[in-house]
Structures are given as C-alpha cells and as structure tokens.
Model the fold of this input.
Amino acid sequence: MSMLSEPSTSRPFDVHGSPGERTLAPAATGRRDPVDPALCRQWLRDMLLIREFENRCMQQYQDKKIGGFCHIYIGQEAVAVGCTAAVRPNDPIVTAYRDHGHALARGMAARHCMAEMFGKIGGCAKGKGGSMHMFDREHHLYGGHGIVGAQIPLGVGLAFACKYMDEVIDGRPNSRVALAFLGDGALNQGAIHEAMNLAGLFDIPCVIICENNGYSMGTSIHRGTTMGHDIISKAIGYGIDGYVVDGMDVLSVYHDMSAIVEKCRRESRPAFVDMRCYRFKGHSMSDPRKYRTTEEELQYASDDPIGRLKLHLEERGELSDAVLKDMQREIRDEVRESIAWSEASPEPPMTELYHDVFVEPHGPYNGTSLPKMLQGKDLR
Amino acid sequence: MSTVTVIDPTMSATREIEFRDALREAMTQEMRRDPRVFLLGEEVAQYNGAYKVSKGMLDEFGPRRIIDTPISESGFAGMAIGAAMMGLRPIVEFMSWSFSLVAADPILNNAPKMLYMSGGQFGCPIVFRGNDGAGGQLGSTHSWCVEGLFSNVPGLKMVIPSCPEDAKGLMTTAIRDDDPVFFLESERMLGMKGHVPEGDYLVPFGQAKVRREGTDCTLVSFGRPVNFCLDAAAELAKEGISCEVLDMRTIRPLDIDSIVRSVRKTNYCVVVDQSWSFGSPGSEVASQLHQHCFDDLDNFVHRVHSADVPTPYAFNLEQEYLPNARRICEAVRSCLYRA
Done:
C-alpha cells in the first residue's frame, strides 16, 4: 500500500503508526483491473462536490444558517466515494455524525442535505435530524448517528436483516452486505466490541470500516487506544478478518473495498477495515486544532485525495483542463443552488412537532409521513 | 408447571394456563403468522428460556428464528434495532429489565427516536420484554422497576400486564405494533394461572380495565401491584370501604380518561406504582388528575410506591419496601380521612 511504504525520512509525520506485518493485508493482493476513465472522472466529480459542499457548509455555519454541531468531511472524501463505488446500490450503509460525505456519495441531492442543516422542511429528515443525522431510504442510508460507536450494532443489525430476509424468509442465498462506518475515536466504545463479537459469532455480512483519521476529537489515536498502530488486531480477536486500506487514494479504496465486500458477500462473513485517512479540518466547527502541528497538516494536505485522483487522470491524458473547469463550475452552481433552495424552503410547520413520534396516531401524536424528498420514489 | 402446546378444545372455555405460557402462546402464534418475527436473547433457545417463557420454541422454529445471544445487551439490542429499521419485527428478551441498563443507549437513543430523527423514513417495530421489579430477594441491582426511568421517553410504548389473559392479549398487540414496545413482565407472576382465550387474542393499548368496581376510592395501578390492590380492596371491604381497582395495562399510552371517569365517581384516588416515587408513572397520574379532576377530588391524590431506597435483600425489609397490601390499605384510609 503506497502510503504505508513511503520512506519515513520524506514524511516525518505518521499519525497512524506502522501496522508492521499487517501491511500485507490480503486485500492488497490480487489484480487491479484498470478503471474506466469515465468512472474515475465521476469519482472526481463526487469528491469535488463533497469538498465544495463542505467548504460552503463552513461559511453557512459561520453565518449562523446552520446550528448545533457540524463536522466537516474534507480530507476523507475518497473513503465515502470509493466505498460507495465498491458496493451495490441496495447494500445498506450506516455511519456516524461526520455524515454529509456519505449522504452525497450515496446519491442524496445536495439541496436536501443542506436544507436538513438549515432546519428546513425540505431537508432529508424534514429538519428534525440536523447535520449529524442524515437519512435516505431511497439510497439505503440508515443514518447519520450522533452517539460515538452506537451505529455499529445497528449496522450489524442491517446486515443480519439482509441475510434473514434472503435466507430465512425467501429461502435463497444472502445477496447483500452492509457497510458500517466509524471513526477511530469509537474504537474504545463497548458497543462496537459487542457488535464485532456478534458479527463474528453469527456470520453477519457487515463490513466495519474504521475511518482512521488519527484523532478522536483532539486525542491522538495513540493516547486513546491500545495497539493504535495496528487496530485490526481488535477485530482479529473477534474472529473477523482485518485489512489496512489507504483511504487517501480513491482507487485503492475502490479496489480493496471491492475485493473485501465481494468476499464478505460470497462467504457471508464480516470484515474490518483500518481505513487510513486524515481529516483536514477540525473535529467540529469549534476546534482550533491545537493538538497537532501545521507541519503535520501540510504534509497530509500534500497527500490530498482529490489531488491524487486528478494527477492520476492527468498523467493518463484522461482529464482536460476544459473538462475539469466545466466540472468545477457545475459543482459550484449545484452547491450554490442547494443553499438558495434551502433558504427558500419553509421552516417545518408546527404540526411537525408531534409528527413522526409514533407510526400510530394517538393523543397529541399525529402519525407519520415520508419527507418530500422521498414522495413518489420506489422504496423497495 | 405445564407448557400448553396442545389444547383440548372441550376445555377451551375454562382453560387456565400460566402467565409464561400466555406469553409464549402469543409469541408462537405471531411467529407462525409472520416470518419477520423472531426472538433473541440470553438462553432463549437451547436452555429453553431462563424462566421457561420460550420453552419449546427452538424446536418449532429452529435456531435462525429463536436466537441464543451472548451476554451482550448493548450489542444484541442494537443489532435488533438495526434489523427492525429494515422491516423485521424482533422480540428482544432481557432476562431482567435490570440488565437493560447496559443497553440504555440503543433502547432509549435509537429505538424510540429513529422515526423522528429520520423524518418519518425509518420506524422501529420492535418488542423489548423481560422481568421487571423486585420481590425475589435479588438485591438492588437485579430488582429494577424501569417504569419511572423509561416511561419518561417519548416515542416508546410501555406495556405492563397483571394477569395471564392480558399477558397474551397485550403481547400479540405489541408484536403487531409498528412502534417500539417496552413490555414489562414480572418473575413473581410467571407462574400465575388464569383463563386465557385461545387463537388470535388482542388487547388494545391505552385501555384500562376495571378489575373491581367500587364507589368510595379509586385505586390506580400497573402490573404486579394491581394484584396487591385487589388484596387491599378485599381487606378494606371488610371495613366497609368500597374500592374501584383500575388496571392501567399500558403506561404509555396512559388511559387518563378511564381514571378521570372513576375519580369523578369516587372523589378519592390512590395510585399504586412499584417504581420509585420521584418522577414516576404514579407522580404523572397524580399530576394529570390534579389537572383534570381538581374540583372532583376530596383529598389530594395519595401515592404508594416502592420505598425510596435501594432494594434491600433481607426478606422482611424487601416485603416492606414493596407497595404491599398493608401499605395500600393505610394510604386508602388516610386518603379517606379514616386513618
């Protein structure tokens, strides 16, 4: 894996630490077929969209259009885009609170994601969830979850349900795999260990992806967990195969995740991925990043996943300046439009306060309904 | 004890089965009816249930639908919630609700809030069930009454039967309900026998039942203490005090209308609730009654709860700790100015 084998002299900072022999994780083996340049350009577009969206989010937050907590995904775009490309559209996914990137990569329109943060009725959850709680049933995104690590038992449950529906109800082999994302800060939460044990014990086809950006808020991974240099050792203890993947390179993410996902699908077994990446911005909007140096940030910035993909395409003559400029202009317009659309979207009416609490209407609770985003959509 | 899997039809009118059999009958019938329903928990399958509620279910449904879990409440409760989000209908057995506390995050932060936080996209049709309450000298950590803690949370329904018939009818309703249901049983009642209808039998949520009619004082209760109220009412009848005993059957939704109707007749009310008094269903009933029946009440609403201390182990202390019949009688006499 390129990032791990770089000579340390030219790259003095290594927030993750060497996993030693585990650099030879099985996912790295196998032939890498060249990827269709059109697909690569699509990934570039997806990553640029997330980058632009997040940059504009920060502005909207400063302008107080977005409230609460807001966690920016810049630097980790290759993970959401590469992982999404490696699964089927109906494979369920669930993630933590740094979730805008996953929502956009999965196909949620920027306007519904932005409007959710604006607390408007046009948001994916009608403005009731906010930045940390993006849901999209059409695109099989089961949240956005705010409590660190809590989404991993849910993800194992999604995969359990896929397998149960296929094998127990329909009497056919399991066909789906769930992806459950967590940050390295979640590694020390009991819930993920219980979930990994159950996944290993019950042969549950869930790929648990640790977006290891080296920091649990302001605490470096080595101050927070044992075996921080080799976190897949935790999964191996639960009988789950672990893989180290370069999360700063979308091609590596795509190739390795494709192999891992298909193995899980075929064997109906879980996997754990140490997805090594770096968050370019703070933990949340209020983080001054005093726990790390500018030099470290600059080194990782030089490893920008968007830059790497651009370089890959340009070296092969598969991305002209004109195409890139068009792409950037389209994305700027799309994100700008999402802000205007969110501004124009009404606040949730007061009837929403007691709506979606219970399916069954009773007392003050007035039932439930799908958000506008999903009305008329095929939700099977 | 007997497990009723084959029933003599000539006996059906008077058929009496145990509380645990009633629960099992509801779960079994629903699992036959709907392949999305499955049961998971500690010792539910090969061991036949720590309290034999699921006895024989592994034989009928196999290990894919009757699932033994490790002792890992947070993990398997969360896993079941994920499965419910995809449309399955899990029944999660907590050997004791006391053990659900380590699963507080999934059962309180995920299940009851998922529909709201997803803007109506993902519901959570799940039943959490298990033994609740003290009375078996288990000490404080194993004697939780979770009514007070968990009924505080919007988005969940809380069910608490006091007899085998309701155990079946409420469990069937719980499994078919599209919202998360917290179903509170009692180890002390699992062997209780009573008439239970065969076949499909549903008791709707939010409808209290008058277990004894009376004119002088309304006793409002939930779950096992309903039986203490019936004992107290029999005792008080000897003194010429006529109590009406209301079995609420569900705490959320709360059938306040039935309480109001009874109190407008009796003008006195004693609430009997086995949870601690501070911030409890009992205090909620008192508060709502003072709102609805301020001019009907001839005394403030009296309340009998478990004593406001950790549950003691010693038999005599534990019996005194419970909202027992003697304490209920004292509260009624005090409420009626006859102390």
